[in-house]
C-alpha cells in the first residue's frame, strides 16, 4: 500500500530544496528506498488537506553543455519519474526562462507523467504574473507563481496536484488484516506460520501476492481474515545454504511495506541482534504497526524475574519500537501463540484509528498547561495554535505552530508522550508534523473547522 510519489525536478539553484521543505516540513523523517533495488533517492513524507504522499527530490538536473543531460542524471530522473504520480517542474522566475529549462520541458513532455510548473522566487503577486508569462511557451500548461521562501502560491499548486494522486487502499474498506512475519533465519518464523495455519479452526488458502514469487496465505479466525504476507519467503529457505550475513533483508523490507501489522520475531536464546535492529528501524520508518514476538520461550530457564529482565533488555535495544507490545511465546509448544492474533487485532485497530480534532486539542491544551513551550534567549516563545489528525495508518497529527524551529527535540518528545499517555495508540507508531503557519491563515482555518484551543 505504498503512498503516491511526487517528483520535484529542475535545474540546480532554482529552489527545489526550499520548495520540498515547504511541502514536507523540514524536520520530518527521511524514508529511503530499498538499498540495491533502486537508486539512492530520498523520499520525504508530506501531506496536504487529508492526503498523504511522498516527495522525491531528484537533485539538480546537471547538463554537460547548456542543453544536454548527463546520461546518468537523466537515467536517475527517469527512474524517479517512472514511479511518480505527478511531477513538479521548478523554474526560476527571477532568472527567467533558460535553454536548460526548455530542454527539461522537452524531455518532460515525452514522459507519461502529469507536470505542474512552479515558477519560483515570485515573492510579489503583481510581478508574479509577469514572471510566469514566458513559461507558458514550455507547453506544459499554466505556470504557477510561487515563493518557496515565503510560501505563497504553494497552496494552489498543491490543490491542483491532489487530483493526480491515486487514492490509497484503505484498510477500513478491506476486511482483512495484512500481517508480515519477519526476523532473522532460525528464529522460528516458519514454525509460527505452521502454528497459525496448522490449527483446525483456520481456513487457509494460498493466493499470489504482488511480487512474482510471493505467496500470501489467507487465514480466517473468529470471523476475521488475516493475510499472511509472503509466506513463500518464510518457507523458501529450506534446503538453501546461506552465508552468515544473509537474511533476505530486501524481501523482509518488501513484506513490511505491504503489511498493516508486522510480527518481528526475536529468538529468546540469542536476544536482540543488529539485524533485528535494522528491521525494527524499517518498521518504524514505514509507519507499520508492530508486535515483538519473543520466540523459543520454552528453551529459557526462568525464575520470577526472567520475563521482566528480558522485557527491559529488548526494549532497550529496540527503542524505536517502544510503543510495540511484546509477547513471549513458543512456536514449538504452542504456548501463547493464539494470543498473538489478539494483539494483532488491537494493533490494527489502533493503527487505523481516527481521533477527533476536539479530543486532540483537549490533549494539547492539557499538555501546554503542564509544560509551556520553550522560550529562546531573544524572548521568542513557541506557540501551538491547534492540532488535527490528518491521516491514519499510522495516525498522523499536524500541529500548527508559529515557528517549528522554536520546538526542540525534548519538547516534541514531551508532546508525543502526552498523546501516547492520553490516547494510547498501543502497537502503532504515530507521527507528529510541526507546521509553521502565519497567524492569519491559522485563524481562517480554525474558523472553518469551528474548533480552537
Ligand atoms: P535547489 O538547488 O534547486 O534545491 O535550490 P535551493 O532550494 O537550494 O535554493 C537555491 C537558492 O535560491 C537559495 O539561495 C535559496 O535561498 C534561493 N531561493 C529558494 N526559493 C526562493 C524564493 O522563493 N525566493 C527567492 N528570492 N529565493 C529563493
Ligand atoms: P525460521 O528460519 O525463522 O523460519 O525458523 P524455523 O521455524 O525454521 O525454526 C528454526 C529452528 O528453531 C528449528 O529447529 C525449530 O525447531 C526451532 N524452533 C522454532 N520455534 C521454536 C520454539 O518455540 N522453541 C524451541 N525450543 N525451538 C524452536
Shape: globular
Number of DSSP E strands: 17
> Helix content range of the residues, please?
25-40%
Q: What is the percentage of strand-forming residues?
A: 15-25%
Provide a count of the helices: 14
Topology:
Layout: E1 5-10, H1 16-24, E2 31-32, E3 42-48, E4 51-57, H2 71-82, E5 86-92, H3 99-110, E6 115-120, H4 125-133, E7 144-145, H5 154-161, E8 176-182, H6 189-197, E9 203-208, E10 215-221, E11 224-228, H7 231-235, H8 249-258, E12 261-267, H9 274-286, E13 289-295, H10 306-317, E14 325-328, H11 337-351, H12 357-370, E15 384-391, E16 396-401, H13 409-423, E17 431-436, H14 439-449
Helix pairs in contact: 8-9, 12-13
The protein binds guanosine-5'-diphosphate (2 copies).
One guanosine-5'-diphosphate binds at residues 10, 12-18, 60, 120-121, 123, 147-149.
Description:
The chain is of the alpha/beta class. The protein folds into three domains: 5-164, Rossmann fold (3-Layer(aba) Sandwich); 176-351, P-loop containing nucleotide triphosphate hydrolases (Rossmann fold); 357-452, GMP Synthetase, Chain A, domain 3 (2-Layer Sandwich). The protein contains 14 helices and 17 strands. Residues 27-40 and 439-453 have low confidence and may be disordered.
In short:
The chain is an alpha/beta fold and 453 residues long. The protein is 34% helix and 22% strand. It has three domains: 160 residues, P-loop containing nucleotide triphosphate hydrolases (Rossmann fold, 3-Layer(aba) Sandwich), CATH 3.40.50; 176 residues, 3-Layer(aba) Sandwich (Rossmann fold); 96 residues, GMP Synthetase, Chain A, domain 3 (2-Layer Sandwich).
Amino acid at each position: 500500500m505504498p503512498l503516491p510519489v511526487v517528483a520535484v525536478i529542475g535545474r540546480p539553484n532554482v529552489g527545489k530544496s526550499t520548495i520540498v521543505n515547504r511541502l514536507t516540513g523540514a524536520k520530518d523523517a527521511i524514508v529511503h528506498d530499498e538499498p540495491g533495488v533502486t537508486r539512492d533517492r530520498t523520499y520525504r513524507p508530506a501531506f496536504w488537506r487529508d492526503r498523504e504522499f511522498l516527495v522525491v527530490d531528484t537533485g539538480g538536473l546537471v547538463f554537460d553543455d547548456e542543453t544536454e543531460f548527463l546520461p546518468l542524471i537523466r537515467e536517475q530522473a527517469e527512474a524517479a519519474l517512472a514511479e511518480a504520480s505527478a511531477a513538479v517542474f521548478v523554474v526560476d522566475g527571477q532568472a527567467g526562462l533558460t535553454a536548460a529549462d526548455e530542454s527539461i520541458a522537452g524531455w518532460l513532455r515525452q514522459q507519461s507523467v502529469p507536470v505542474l510548473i512552479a515558477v519560483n522566487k515570485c515573492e510579489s503577486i503583481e510581478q508574479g504574473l509577469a514572471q510566469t508569462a514566458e513559461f507558458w511557451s514550455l507547453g506544459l500548461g499554466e505556470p504557477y507563481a510561487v515563493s518557496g521562501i515565503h510560501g505563497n502560491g504553494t497552496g494552489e499548486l498543491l490543490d491542483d496536484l491532489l487530483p493526480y494522486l491515486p487514492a490509497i487502499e484503505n484498510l477500513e474498506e478491506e476486511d482483512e488484516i495484512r500481517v508480515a512475519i519477519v526476523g532473522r533465519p532460525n528464529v522460528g518464523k516458519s514454525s509460527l506460520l505452521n502454528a497459525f495455519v496448522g490449527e483446525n479452526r483456520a481456513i487457509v488458502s494460498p493466493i499470489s501476492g504482488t511480487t512474482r514469487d510471493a505467496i500470501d496465505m489467507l487465514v480466517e479466525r473468529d470471523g476475521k481474515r488475516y493475510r499472511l504476507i509472503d509466506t513463500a519467503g518464510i518457507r523458501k529457505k529450506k534446503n538453501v545454504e546461506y552465508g552468515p550475513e544473509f537474511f533476505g533483508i530486501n524481501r523482509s523490507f518488501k513484506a513490511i511495506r505491504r503489511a498493516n501489522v508486522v510480527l518481528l520475531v526475536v529468538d529468546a536464546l540469542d536476544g536482540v541482534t543488529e539485524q533485528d535492529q535494522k528491521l525494527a528501524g524499517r518498521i518504524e520508518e514505514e509507519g507499520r504497526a508492530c508486535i515483538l514476538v519473543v520466540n523459543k520461550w520454552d528453551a529459557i530457564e526462568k525464575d520470577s524475574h526472567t520475563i521482566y529482565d528480558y522485557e527491559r533488555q529488548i526494549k532497550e535495544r529496540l527503542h524505536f519500537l517502544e510503543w510495540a507490545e511484546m509477547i513471549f511465546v513458543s512456536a514449538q509448544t504452542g504456548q501463547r501463540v493464539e494470543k498473538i492474533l489478539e494483539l494483532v487485532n488491537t494493533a490494527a485497530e489502533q493503527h487505523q484509528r481516527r481521533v477527533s480534532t476536539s479530543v486532540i486539542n483537549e490533549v494539547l491544551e492539557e499538555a501546554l498547561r503542564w509544560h509551556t513551550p520553550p522560550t529562546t534567549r531573544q524572548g521568542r516563545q513557541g506557540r501551538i495554535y491547534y492540532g488535527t489528525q490528518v491521516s491514519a495508518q499510522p495516525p498522523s497529527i499536524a500541529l500548527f505552530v508559529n515557528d517549528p524551529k522554536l520546538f526542540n527535540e525534548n519538547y516534541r518528545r514531551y508532546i508525543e508522550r502526552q498523546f501516547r499517555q492520553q490516547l494510547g495508540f498501543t502497537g502503532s507508531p504515530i507521527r507528529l508534523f510541526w507546521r509553521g503557519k502565519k497567524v492569519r491563515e491559522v485563524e481562517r482555518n480554525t474558523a472553518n473547522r469551528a474548533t480552537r484551543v
